[in-house]
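User: tokens in, sequence out, please.
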């Protein structure tokens, strides 16, 4: 089978016979008379068997066109746009704060090559400043890729590698670090950075994009400028997530990494602070970073300490009406080292499961209880189920997010101790603002139905 830039079968034969390849500017006329103009794109091999060809239109959007509906396709030429400028033309100001961009994958650190329509990594400082010249006005930019994976493929081992690279950059004098990351598991990595680097002297800023760099509605540029502003000039030194405050290009919110969650699949303002308020708001136009929340760690001259070992044998399970004892028993029998439970309401679990929880604790496996409500805090003293869980040895998670609890327990078991008593003590320490000692009404947003 011929594979032609990701195209196979009829699509490959059709393009080869006409001498058309990805990067060519084409005019496609459909049988019904509609005409499309744009750049032919390559296809991922996962879609290679399709009879569609994909064209990037002049408005920036991609369209898939069925061969059966195409009357004609014509290759033509347009005045090309340079995809890169001469490196010698790009100079950086060494007097600006030094900020390192660490790329882990995703389209946030990629740019559009307008000669082919493809989205390619922008990993050299020159590439990034060519793509977003404003960054060169904010910071002295350094950039490198430490991995290139989808965020859903992240594991605790990847957190260890990212933390080590961040630590090295800070230790070598970086005045801020920006981590380009896929959005799906960005809050997990933000929590991992918060716990694994003690005594942070500078901000560690995670940033992503909900819309690809090749789309007119992309949020990549807006978010990256805001992330660099935070890394270069914010007064705090915490692990944070910087993403859109609303659906428009107005402001970005700076969320504490241990108190943020992705709350929508596709909106640009998908990330929200939970049981917390954003630390700051960023205006990339005015270059202002306005602190609006509490700061826990301040920027300063400090010696960072790296403790970046995570235990992969920690499970996060969700309570639901049909949850069986066998699930918990399986984790115990398979030698898991910790369990985080996402309980109902105030942190409850079916009474039939409490014996399995007790057995886990008796096997020196810490069990942490959080709430799937997300907002509010667990309270084991209201109902009898809660009191039975306390008697079984469950560690209450206060108002910590389930994902943050998973990361924290994994970090404690990997970097600090596996002694059950010590694990309990460490988990109940509020290390980086992961839970609140008390709640006020303002921590619960009343979202509008827009």
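Assistant: Sequence out:
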């Amino acid at each position: 089978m011929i594979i032609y830039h990701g195209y196979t079968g009829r699509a490959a034969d059709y393009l080869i016979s006409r001498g058309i390849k990805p990067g060519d500017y084409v005019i496609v006329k459909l049988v019904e008379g509609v005409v499309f103009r744009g750049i032919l794109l390559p296809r991922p091999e996962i879609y290679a068997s399709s009879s569609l060809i994909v064209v990037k239109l002049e408005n920036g959007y991609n369209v898939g066109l069925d061969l059966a509906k195409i009357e004609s396709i014509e290759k033509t030429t347009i005045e090309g746009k340079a995809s890169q400028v001469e490196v010698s033309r790009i100079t950086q100001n060494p007097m600006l704060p030094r900020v390192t961009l660490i790329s882990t994958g995703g389209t946030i650190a990629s740019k559009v090559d307008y000669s082919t329509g493809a989205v390619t990594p922008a990993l050299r400082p020159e590439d990034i400043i060519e793509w977003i010249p404003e960054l060169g006005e904010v910071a002295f930019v350094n950039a490198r890729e430490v991995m290139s994976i989808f965020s859903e493929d992240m594991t605790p081992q990847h957190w260890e590698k990212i933390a080590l690279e961040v630590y090295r950059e800070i230790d070598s004098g970086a005045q801020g670090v920006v981590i380009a990351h896929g959005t799906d598991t960005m809050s997990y990595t933000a929590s991992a950075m918060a716990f694994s680097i003690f005594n942070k002297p500078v901000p560690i800023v995670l940033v992503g994009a909900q819309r690809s760099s090749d789309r007119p509605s992309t949020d990549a540029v807006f978010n990256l400028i805001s992330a660099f502003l935070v890394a270069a000039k914010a007064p705090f030194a915490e692990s944070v997530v910087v993403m859109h405050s609303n659906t428009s290009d107005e402001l970005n919110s700076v969320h504490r990494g241990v108190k943020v969650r992705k709350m929508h699949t596709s909106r640009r303002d998908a990330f929200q602070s939970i049981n917390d308020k954003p630390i700051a708001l960023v205006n990339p136009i005015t270059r202002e970073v306005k602190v609006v929340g509490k700061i826990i760690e301040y920027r300063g001259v400090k010696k960072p300490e790296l403790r970046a070992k995570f235990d992969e044998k920690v499970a996060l399970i969700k309570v639901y009406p049909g949850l069986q004892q066998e699930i918990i028993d399986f984790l115990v029998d398979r030698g898991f080292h910790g369990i985080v439970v996402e309980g109902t309401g105030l942190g409850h679990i079916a009474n039939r499961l409490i014996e399995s929880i007790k057995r886990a604790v008796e096997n020196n496996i810490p069990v942490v209880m959080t709430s799937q409500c997300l907002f509010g805090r667990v309270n084991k003293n209201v109902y009898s189920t809660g009191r039975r869980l306390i008697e079984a040895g469950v560690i209450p998670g206060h108002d910590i997010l389930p994902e943050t609890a998973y990361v924290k327990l994994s970090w404690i078991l990997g970097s600090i101790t596996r002694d059950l008593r010590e694990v309990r003590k460490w988990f109940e320490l509020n290390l980086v603002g992961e839970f609140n000692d008390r709640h006020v009404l303002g921590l619960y947003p009343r979202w509008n139905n827009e």
